Write the C-alpha cells for this entry.
Amino acid sequence: MRAELRRPDAPDAIVAVATWDGKQARLDVKDPSVSGLDRILRPTPIAIDDPSLRHPGTSGPVVLQPGDLEWFRAALLTRALELGLRVRFVSEAVDGGFDPASQYRSFEEQVERLTS
C-alpha cells in the first residue's frame, strides 16, 4: 500500500510518501522542511476509536500494535493530522490477476497478455 502526505493548502505538492510492503513501513521524505515526519511511522502502539475494529458489545478506543496494515493506516491518519498534513491512499497497479470476463481467451493468449 502507498500513501501520500500533503499539506492542505498545497494538495499538489507531496511532502512524503509512506509505503507498506506487508512486513514493514517505510517513509520517503520529499520535503525535509516539514518537522516531525520521523514520528509518523514510529513503531509504537496507537489508540484509535474505530467501531469497525472493536469486539461486539465493547466501546472505547482500540489499541493497535505495530506490524500490520491496520496499524499503518491508523498511524498515518492520526499522526499526520497532528502535523497538519492530509493523507491520500493510492492504489498500486496490479499486474495480471484473474479476470473472469476474459475466459474467452486461450491459455497461450492469457500468458502473452500477462507477460507483455
User: Anything to note?
Assistant: The chain has a mean pLDDT of 89.
